[in-house]
Structure formats: structure tokens, C-alpha cells
Amino acid sequence: GSSLAVFTSGGDAQGMNAALRAIVRMGIYLGCKVYLIYEGYQGMVDGGKNIQLANWYSVSGIIGAGGTIIGSARCMDFKERPGRLKAAKNLVKFGINNLVCIGGDGSLTGANLFKEEWSSLLQELLETDQITAEEREKYSFLNIVGLVGSIDNDFCGTDMTIGADSALHRIIEAVDAIVTTAFSHQRCFVMEVMGRHCGYLALAAGLASDADWIMIPENPPEKGWEDKLCKRLAVQRESGHRLNIVLIAEGAIDRDGNPIKSDYVKDIIKNRLKIDTRVTVLGHVQRGGSASAFDRVLATRMGAEAVLALLNATPDSEPVVVSLNGNVTCHVPLMESVEKTKAVAKAMADKDFQRAVELRGSS
Ligand code: F6P
Fold first, then answer.
1. Region annotation N-terminal catalytic PFK domain 1: residue ranges (predicted)?
2. Catalytic residue status for 276
């Protein structure tokens, strides 16, 4: 059978463990040797104890646990060729030339570069007597499949990333908790949620929690938005509401591209409406805790699909990302999705918000 390895990279997300479990078990079920690479790309570069053969029970009892049991890192060494050379050598020595990368767009870009460089890395290893000619021959191709693990749901090419649904649950729980105390004291809460440059979490949480106002990067408000916000909240209060919830995506910006800070919004409401207003920044609680049922199932489906994609890959097949399209898991070209994701970031930086939304929507 083939050998494959799985690693998690970049920021963690609930559901990564469920994906790991599915990959290990599907791989073993299909007769593969499955390795776990600890600490992301760093473990691949460092080798040794960071690369370990898994068995069926290595992934028992983890399906619902948040985080990733094999660790994750943002690795500097892998960004340089010498680091990638070491990683290639380690993989060859373990007999691995099939990889599943669970991470965000940065991690998947790294994986793609690694695949592109593979032949030249092996050539260099051969010339410097670090691998044998037989090894180069045997492992001449590297197959890569990506799974997108990120609470942000910011990746073009999949309707949902692994972790976004769990983070959304966490946010909703927090909003529900805040609402009760806000009601008692007739307060307004400005709640800041994660998502980097993507407003998915704030938007979906706003819909699910009946928030009064939402600010997301994709739809920067026009000048004078402060007046509109205050008017809206004032109307709410006049009609008998005892509280207000304003949800701000951490990446929210105005039309000039300047960040909209939660404290600024709080001060506006406090000073203009004389409403007792507080800021709650949810932070990393959004990325922790157990995975939702949806994420467990999504990650399990994607993990199983990733192994099939690897085993069906031919030397000249392009690396793919396993994605969700509607309710169907499918494959999309890895680089195309990464490029699209980067194009969204560029459109946002260029303040072409319409284009950013179109690009996101077309995937
Ligand atoms: O990408 C996931 C994410 O949690 C973002 O929502 C957030 O901006 C960022 O990572 C935080 O990064 P770190 O965990 O390194 O502080």
C-alpha cells in the first residue's frame, strides 16, 4: 500500500481533529500506512519524533475535541528553500510522498510550492548524497491534497471551511449570554468577532442573534454612517427595546479602508445617545471548545474524500482542495482557489468591494 502523512498548519480550528481521524482511519481501511506529522511544517522540517506512524486507535476519542492533537505552527523555516529541502529529505526517509495539508490559504500555498519544487529538491538531495538514486526514483512524485481548516470561512472554492460553524455557535452562545445582562441594565453591547478580512462570522451571527447593527469588511459603510447607526438604535429604544447588540467583524473598515474600531463605535453610541455601552471582544474563545455536529460531519466527509483523492492522483494531476459545494463534497484545483482567495484580498485592498463580493460568491 501507499504511505501518506497528514499535518495541520496555521491557526487551529474546531473540526481539525475530526478530519485527522477520518484521514487516518480511511487510510488504514484502504491499506495505507498513515503518518502523523506533529507541529505543522516545522515538524516536517525537523523530522525525527515529529513524524509518527498512526494506528486505528491513535485517533480514538478526538472527533469532537477542538484544536488539533498533532499541534500546529506558523513556520518560518519552511518559507525558505533550505527548510523545504530538509522536509523533503525527511519525507523520503519515511517513505512518504502523499500529503494531506489541513490549513488556511497560506499553508496551502506552501504545499503547492513544495509540490512544484519536489523534483528539484530531490535532485539536490541526490547530488549531495542525502538520498539514493533508488529513493529518488521511488518517490519522484509528491501528491498533495488540501483541506481548509479555518473559523473565518474565508476561502474561495468551498461553501464552508472546517471550524466556521463551531465558531459561529460559540459566538451565538456569547451573544445570548450578553443579551441577558444587557437587558437587566438596559445596555448596548458592541461585540467584536473574529474573521480576519472576512465578515462571514459577523454576518451569520448577526442574522442568528437578531443583532441591531452589523459591520463587515465587505460592505464598508458610507460617510456619515455614525448618524444612521445612532438613529437606528434610537428608534429601537423608543419602540421599547431595553438593549442593543452591535456586531463588528474584526476586519471591518470604512469606505477609505480605515479600520472601524469597537471602542470608537462604543464612544459614538455612548456620547451621542447617552446609552450605557460596553465593548466585548470575543477573541480566541471562538476558536476553542468542542466542534459542532456540522463540523464533525463535514470534516469526516472531507477527510475520507481527501484520502480517495490522494489514492486516485496520477503523477501529473494538479493538487486539489476538498471542498463543499452545496451539500456535496467535491474537489477544486488548489492553486485556482488560492489565487481567487488572494484576488479577494487584493480587491478589498483596492477598495473594490463589489468585486470582492462577486469573487467570493462565484466560488
Ligand atoms: O484565521 C483565524 C483567526 O482566528 C482569525 O479570525 C484571527 O484574525 C486570527 O486567526 C488570530 O490569529 P492568532 O491566533 O495568531 O492571534
1. 1-363
2. no
